[in-house]
User: Which sequence fits this backbone?
């Protein structure tokens, strides 16, 4: 059983919640999976048919391509003639209005026009017409305009915008066609009337007094119902297919070149399969059930891994949210690209998933999660073998490259190696399929498009670094890169610690080295414990002289205080350290080291001193106990051991192998007896390894130096 897995008896509400999460995740992934029938052919125009003889299983039409349908729709658009209703009463009403308004017209209109009419030979005066003759001319022109047809400006603009050539005019039971160019609007009709009157010598002032524009009104109205019916009739006349394939017809045989005609037939068969699948509810339900079972089994297998081996992640909501987000997002992206035929799925940087899981969790979890996600993505593809093989091996390389992420350059190196691996794997698969690297024809040569996509995907993998920062902020994780940045001793809080409490700073450095070495030996997170050790005592900056490592003058301020006051100051360095950690925005794992490095232990020196000085009084133990909690991770337990051992080693009178060994055994056995390690995943073997490391390191630190000889005489 994994050291990180603690058997926990879960209540029914917790179990029901986990089942609900599994079902919800499965449903979300299945909802977006493509369900396009059972066809699984892969073919290209101009290349040989790689499968056996294909005979039509049933009758189906040969569907036209999208380009052909578009061209036919455009041609039908030229034939479309919208309907207009003829309103003959409009002309009669306007003519009667014209006669009534001009019956008593002022004879001043009979005066000659002021504007001369120009000819090529100069200027001539047009003789003035008598009013009855002029009115007859105007009525004739108005009658001509109305007979041609007057439409509103809005209707005319719509006809022009739609490139309509002609319209159909309904006059009772009669329907006639008329060119759009022959129609007038009120404005164009008035302009034509003005041109005619100007040609016979009527002046502009006279035209304005006549106000002829008021007698030109639309006498054609758009018939929306008839027009839409005609539009639908034309659309229905457009057949989506041309020709039929009958059941039993031989379509293509192995090795035959896929011609354009055969290609259209095969695509028509694909479309017919999809249509029949969608229309057959029973078949659709079976496909949906299969997808749900497939996805559900993979999600359950992933849940089983966490339940059996990493229950600590399963009980951590942030960790599970990250895993579920990654496991769902990549299949959704894959399904979206497949459903909408967008580019190639090889453009998606799938190796980004194990990078995130490895950085925030561990290698084994990264591999299991990556495998599950790739299997979920593969169900959306028709040819998953190459995809699964390429992406799984690429993910493994990503995990190997980022075993300890501490520098940005590692991401670049990982992206390069992942790309190289993906290209090599896909190249080997194509060689297995008989492809020729050089000298082959268009059929047997390599498809370099896929390799271009793999290279682009490798480049996109480098965006994992900025995305990693966003995930850290969103889920509250702490990556190794952040830990390395925090371990820089030039950061404000560490630099201030070295200035204000130099003894504590040196102690923290020693503890950091000891704890990191133990973590490496037992397989814990060495960078995490190294960084946590640097910050575990920052609370001592509030009262540096009250801690022995900072008492350079030999004056102990505790001599002037009671045991309770001294213990309170000592204990307070934990709570003040947590306040400083919040002030400097240190991540939660570092704050946990500050809170747990003494656990629920006693300030034994002052507690024992109080009991010795006041044997008759009952000493309140709670006043001398740290607030805790006790360590709950292996790294926190390692830091507790290293802190106690390093601090106690300074009080040894002599540094021999025996004295150092006895000190280490006494300190760690005492912590173990006090139950400090009951809540953390440390084994007896781990504790024994830690003891050996402490002994080796302390002997190296406090070894006796060689005494140099002196010159005689």
Assistant:
């Amino acid at each position: 059983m994994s050291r990180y897995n603690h058997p926990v008896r879960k209540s029914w509400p917790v179990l029901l919640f986990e089942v609900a999460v599994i079902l919800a995740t499965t449903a979300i992934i299945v909802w977006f999976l493509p369900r396009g029938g059972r066809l699984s052919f892969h073919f290209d125009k101009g290349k040989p048919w790689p499968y056996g003889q294909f005979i039509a299983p049933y009758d189906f039409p040969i569907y036209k391509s999208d380009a052909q349908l578009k061209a036919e729709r455009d041609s039908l658009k030229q034939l479309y003639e919208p309907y207009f209703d003829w309103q003959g009463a409009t002309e009669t009403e306007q003519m009667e209005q014209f006669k009534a308004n001009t019956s008593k017209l002022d004879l001043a209109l009979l005066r000659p026009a002021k504007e001369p009419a120009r000819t090529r030979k100069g200027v001539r005066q047009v003789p003035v017409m008598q009013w009855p003759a002029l009115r007859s001319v105007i009525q004739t022109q108005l009658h001509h305009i109305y007979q041609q047809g007057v439409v509103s400006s809005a209707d005319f603009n719509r006809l022009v915008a739609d490139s309509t050539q002609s319209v159909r005019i309904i006059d009772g039971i009669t329907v006639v066609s008329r060119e759009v160019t022959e129609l007038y609007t009120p404005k164009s009709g008035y302009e034509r009337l003005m041109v005619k009157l100007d040609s016979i010598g009527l002046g502009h002032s006279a035209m304005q007094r006549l106000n002829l524009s008021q007698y030109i009104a639309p006498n054609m109205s758009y018939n929306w119902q008839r027009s839409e019916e005609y539009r639908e009739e034309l659309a229905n006349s457009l057949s989506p297919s041309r020709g039929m394939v009958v059941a039993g017809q031989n379509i293509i045989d192995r090795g035959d070149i896929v011609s354009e005609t055969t290609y259209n037939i095969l695509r028509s068969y694909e479309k017919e399969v999809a249509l029949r699948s969608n229309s057959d509810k029973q078949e659709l339900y079976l496909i949906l059930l299969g997808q749900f079972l497939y996805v559900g089994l993979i999600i359950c297998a992933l849940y089983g891994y966490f339940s059996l081996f990493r229950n600590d992640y399963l009980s951590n909501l942030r960790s599970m949210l990250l895993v579920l987000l990654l496991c769902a997002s990549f299949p959704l992206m894959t399904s979206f690209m497949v459903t909408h035929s967008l580019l190639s799925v090889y453009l998606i940087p799938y190796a980004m998933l194990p990078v995130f899981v490895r950085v925030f969790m561990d290698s084994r979890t990264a591999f299991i999660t990556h495998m599950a996600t790739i299997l979920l993505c593969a169900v959306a593809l028709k040819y998953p073998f190459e995809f699964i093989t390429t992406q799984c091996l690429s993910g493994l390389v990503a995990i190997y490259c980022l075993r300890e992420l501490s520098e940005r350059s590692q991401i670049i190196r990982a992206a390069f190696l992942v790309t190289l691996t993906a290209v090599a794997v896909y190249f080997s698969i194509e060689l297995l399929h008989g492809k020729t690297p050089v000298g082959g024809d268009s059929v047997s040569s390599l498809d370099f498009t896929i390799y271009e996509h793999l290279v682009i995907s490798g480049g996109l993998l480098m965006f994992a670094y900025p995305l990693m920062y966003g995930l850290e902020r969103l889920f509250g994780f702490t990556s190794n890169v952040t830990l390395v940045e925090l371990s820089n001793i030039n950061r404000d809080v560490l630099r201030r610690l070295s200035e204000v409490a130099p003894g504590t700073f040196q102690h923290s450095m020693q503890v950091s080295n000891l704890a990191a070495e133990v973590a490496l030996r037992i397989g814990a997170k060495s960078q995490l414990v190294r960084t946590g050790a640097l910050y575990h005592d920052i609370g001592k900056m509030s009262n540096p002289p009250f801690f022995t490592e900072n008492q350079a003058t030999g004056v102990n301020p505790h001599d002037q205080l009671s045991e309770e006051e001294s213990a309170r100051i000592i204990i307070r360095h934990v709570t003040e350290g947590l306040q400083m950690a919040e002030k400097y925005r240190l991540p939660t794992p570092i704050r946990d080291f500050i809170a747990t490095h003494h656990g629920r232990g006693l300030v034994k020196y002052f507690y024992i001193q109080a009991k010795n000085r006041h044997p008759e009084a009952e000493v309140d133990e709670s006043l001398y106990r740290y607030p805790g909690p006790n360590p709950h991770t292996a790294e926190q337990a390692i830091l507790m051991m290293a802190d106690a051992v390093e601090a106690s080693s300074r009080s040894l009178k002599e540094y021999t192998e025996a004295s150092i060994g006895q000190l280490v055994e006494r300190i760690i056995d005492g912590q173990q007896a006090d139950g400090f390690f009951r809540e953390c995943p440390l084994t007896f073997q781990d504790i024994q390894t830690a003891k050996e490391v402490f002994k080796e390191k302390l002997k190296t630190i406090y070894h006796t130096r060689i005494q140099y000889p002196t010159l005689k005489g």
The mean pLDDT is 84. The first strand starts at residue 54 and ends at 55. Residues 281-309 form the longest helix (29 residues).
